Protein 1
Amino acid sequence: MIWNNNKETMPIEERRALQGVRLHKLVERVYHSVPFYRAKMQEMNLLPSDINTIDDIVKLPFTTKKDLRDNYPCQLFAVPRSEIVRIHASSGTTGKPTIVGYTRKDLEVWSESIARSLAAFGVTAADTVSVAYGYGLFTGGLGLHYGVERLGATVVPTSTGNTEKHIHLLRDLQISTIACTPSYALHLYEVIIGLGMSISDFNLKIGIFGGEPWTENMRKEIEQKFGIKAYNIYGLSEIMGPGVAHECECQNGTHIIEDHFYPEVIDPETHEVLPDSVQGELVLTTLTKEGIPLLRYCTKDLTALHHGVCACGRTEVTMDRILGRSDDMLIIRGINVFPSQIESVILDMEQFEPQYQIVVDRKNNLDTLEVHVEVKKGYYTDDLNSMMALKKALSAKMKSVLSINADIQFVEPGSIERSQGKSNRVVDKRVLK
Amino acid sequence: MLIKQLSIFLENRAGRAKDVVGHLADNGINILAFTMADRAEFGVLRLIVSDTDKAIRVLTEAGFVTVATDVVSVPCSNATGSLSKLMTLFADSNISIEYMYAVYDDNQARLILRTADMDKCLKLIKDNNLE
């Protein structure tokens, strides 16, 4: 089903005209209300009047995660704080999170984007949707939540944490739709079988999966095990949250909601814009955002774009599944984790050597994160209780910075390889089949 | 009597304890008593050896984190009830024991003890002529 026929099936040229008008207004807005963008544009001798059509976007500066960090917490907001009605936060590359603010209109656009996504998956007002993404600062839970309400379906705000309770709700309420990370869905299946239940006890029909990379094989596995249709949803908090792009019933590409989020794919090294079907880094411009509008935000997600008209009727560009990153960000249980965040916690505590190793694995379809550290020689003691207290202290700091638990392992001094680069610090044993 | 114990930090990994005792054997150091304290992913091997200074040098050179720790060695006759009597003395003096292990040597048992307050422990031993 198509939620907003006018926008989703708009003739391509007509949409490009609309994008041009929206881009011009966006540039006017940020030029006058965000000093960071005004300075950047002045440096490039650009005025808002230079940006009139969507093709002019290539003249504009890029925005990076570092720019968000340098302007922490709210210096990129384009409206007074009184107009912000919601704040979310995601992982920054160091201890500081990335803060995003939404106006009332931003939340409306977000809910509309999710409603469009849900409709494309075949969710209707008659469905009940269990939202098993984390509720809180993370955009997954609340983002999906209000989109389900906008569509008129029933939302069950399950959040994360209690798998057995979740399973009982799925069965007892005969919930038709589940939204979670794909690896959590596979874990859920194992727990269901382990509890002696059968999939025929459930009424699941549609799965909405995102938050982490997944493959066609995982889709097939999930669809077979649950007897459902599994769809990809894409988003990132810097741009909005989930609902920036979604699949349709054709399951052959993820449609970008491009009347609000304008996509480009660039070469991550040269920043040159790449043609259709060539893989590069996804860059998104928030055409209509008010709270924290971003020009050409470099997502670090690797994909390729395909323009054309889809069999579903949508004229929106599609992108391939995201299967890689152009930086070292890890996605663990749907949460973004940067090795530099882990490093900053370790370096902040004088008891530890600067050497560390991050081991990520997937056991029973759940991601695990181990951090191996060496205690400095002077801090070793015969007293195991104080060693355990030290471990607990590091664990607690990790949790507060990463928002997920890391299993801290003390290893013998000198046992972690002293390497030059950062890349060897991470061992990711997960295999996406 | 106050003696030095070696505390060696070990990862829980097959062969690590063997490596420690191998180095001691190669250097002619005799092990008089030992115990292994264990947590999920690491352990501390505690040893009383014939030549503590040499053992620290040898193990440190081999890359082991080796800490010398003060412990108390107290004789305990090999007779029913003697350990109970000794423990009663400690309990009555309100000295809490962090860990303890036993060694049997020259037909006599000795206890190796680490307590929260070592000074108080030594005074108790002296006052009661336990040496």
Protein 2
Amino acid sequence: MKRRTFLKLSAVGGAGAALAGCGHQAEQLIRFIPDETLIPGVATWKSGVCAQCSAGCGMQVRVMQGDAEVFRDGQFGVVKMGLAKKLAGNPDHPVSRGKLCVRGEAGLQVTFNPDRIKHPLKRTGLRGAGQFTQISWDEAVQELLAHLQPLAAPQAAVSLAFLTRPLGGQRGVLVERFLSGFDGARLVPFELFDDAVLRTANRRSFGYEQLPTFDLAHCSYVISFGADFLGTWNSPVAQSVGYGTLRQNRSGIRGKFVQVEPRMSQTGANADEWVAAHPGTEGLLALGIAHVLLKEHFGHAEATGSAGMQIDGWREGLPEYSPEAIAWKTGVAPETTTRLAHEIAAQSPALAVVGGAPLAHTNGMFTALAVNALNALLDSVGKPGGLQFTPRPPLSTSGSAQDISEEGKVDSIRTLAQQILSGQRPIELLLLYEANPVFATPPGWQVREALEKVPFIASFGTFIDETSRLADLILPDHSSLESWIDAAPESGAAEAVISVAPPAMRPLHDTRALPDLLLDLARRLGGRTRQALPWKSYEEMLQAALAPLAHHPGSVSAKDSDEFWKKVQEQGGWWSTDASLVPKAKAPADSSRPMKNQEPQFAGPAAEYPFYFLPYASQPFFDGRHANLPWMQEMPEVLSTGMWGTWVEINARTAATLQIEQGDLLEVASPNGKVRAPALLSPGIAPDVIAMPAGQGHEDYGRYASGRGANPIKILAPQVEPTTGSLAWAGTRVNITKVGKGELVLLTGGPTEWGAEKVTR
Amino acid sequence: MAHRWAMVIDLDRCTGCETCMAACHAENNIATVDAKQAARGRAMHWIHVERYWEGEFPNVRARFQPVLCQQCDAAPCEPVCPTYAAYHNEDGLNAQVYNRCIGTRYCANACPYTARYFNWWNPVWDKPLQLQLNPDVSVREAGIMEKCTFCNQRIVATEIQAKAENREVQDGEVKPACVQSCPTTAMVFGDLDDPNSQVSRLARSMRATTLLSELGTNPKVIYLERESSHGND
């Protein structure tokens, strides 16, 4: 540092700064003027939106003053600034209702993660070697512009793709508008557990291409087919809030809950009855129940609309699906199926839920349509205690995934990889944002090989992971607590919801918010891109986009647009029960013929690979994105109590037959690959099923996740559900071999604890 | 006015989602150890969810029970402490004075609920993770015993606020981090001395029970047992 700069900064920061500098690192010499006026020791709660998954929960962020080393105006230094200290649900928010989930609570460790990318980077070594050098934002933006400009020319021969986690809200709209300036540009949203099958099925059955919202609080009977709705699926916070009331709080009523799945999930552990139907036969069981109901004249087959018409034989009373006829396939005794049907008939309102593994088979569409038909027969659609579809906010483009898909500019990562490798669609430039398909797709999809062929990759993500490691240029985003953030929750509320929040704190590092960066790029590119994105900042775009909401009756009333915008920020969003918003069902666009029963197809012959393989969404890591958070690594997964690793769940009796003990290292082999992890003996899994939690086995994802555990996705066969092209991640068979002794890290548990222990006395 | 703070946990609502655990870590500056230390049973979770299996496949059930310091009226941890680090405060809480603690670990041996955690090493927060630390809660060093405080910092803050406004603390106004975060509202916190408080009403439930009640520790964490529905059969 030059003497003159030192004096200038000392003058600004006062004597304290000079003193703080004595004998310390140079960076502590600088002390900037505080960014905001905060009273030391006094906490303020600011509004926020959780970005840990797509549910869009409204949050509150507890902000207190602290000393942080930051990067400002080209220099490092210590500043007194507001820092996020605790996250909690926003009590007024219709989805989260003052609550969060375990992964949401850990959102703090994303912002403060030591492995965040702190400044723009440029690749120096070979692609994928992970060698980068720091560059300035000017250099980074110039370099990206140089690659964007040729593609922005009309009728460019080659094009770009934007590979991203599914983006909701205005952030999604912005990316779409950005891409509209490039001919042939493709949007490629990617998520491992993607629910595309259920959305498509809901369009066919009910006319809504959307995930459903469940009114558990007013329900008397819930039968769930494989959906981990209290843990990781759909909108778990909203569903848990409803579940509390399902069980208690209504005098004299305690709703019954039945879970159908071959491996007990966190959700299944709470069921009154747990039914371990064979994998891929959940739809048969749903129709077996419907068969009994129709036979006994509960409801009318004709009254079920298009939902019933999707199933072959529905009008005739499903003659092929009698409890006796399906029993040998489902493994569920005919008496059980009949009894479940009788219980459902007696306890109205009743509701059927489907999600997760049952839809991740090659026959997932059949299963989803079967459960939808059962719901229609139970008359649960759009009724209290049933399922409904969250109204969409009255905005011109709500930016949700399904709206984009109708425009036909969306590709799956599988298609993109195929097209790149076959040379069908030359992709000159790949923009990458917080999606990690190299980690979370089966090797048979050849995503890594395809991405390696793309001439230039620019990543906006916050972390280096298996995919962003391939980037040539990294322009890191702010964290969600440092940015304007918004979401348009697809489900979880009975009313239309927009979640919006201003930054809860200033950025820690030399990063730039992705929306503002894209607006800046559009300005510099000019032409169509600039016309599509005329705003100076993302805040301005958000304000303009949400302004029409002021004219609807909703949670915010204001005398003018400025007051409206201020109140929306304070409240953390806008929501409305306005009846005119209730969405009208679209006519089922798909004129597909009624579906006959389809058997699930499994990769790997049963003789050689005797076990069904079930990877599942992990409670702490979900699909693996949270594996870099130390709180999540040390959070014991509740059923296994396992921490800091991966395990192979195997039925205790099966293990005894194979002379496998708790902690033995197993090699799990499919036709497509092998992984190794220690055995975890469990009574809550079918004898012919092997299960592994997803999320670990990262090669490169920061100090807490790298080189830890095993990744079950890497042995999956490239099976897809044919109508949507979604990965059929439950459609692989495996065998197991004991190869030595492994290491399990358990909080409690182990075989010695089993038995009928009394919880309380 | 002194209170008798207590917590009711409804096991029929608890789903084992572990949100309480993450909320507790964030609120109370609980250190993560690492895989090696966790394997030796040294992971620190002031509240953790215990899982009990019942039965064999296919007639198997799992039960969840969040276990935290039971804030016993007759606490076995208190009389064994040679330095009075573990003591009973005027609100009836089992308080732990960190700067009196000399790390004998007698209290952890005496606790039948294994709710006390010993710092075997100094806590490590890789920079800038230390910025998330809650300034209202002290950070514990190696050699110190720690445990759930019922979020005493939140109790004190609420009491000061009520006093400043010249009023009593309202029922439900104090919410420990776990209670605040619980998505199914399985956890309720309040004053047992107030017969009309929600905890007092729930504590009178037919389902109310305490953990290892035969030991006579008289816990102030009260569990409501899980029910079962059998449909119409």
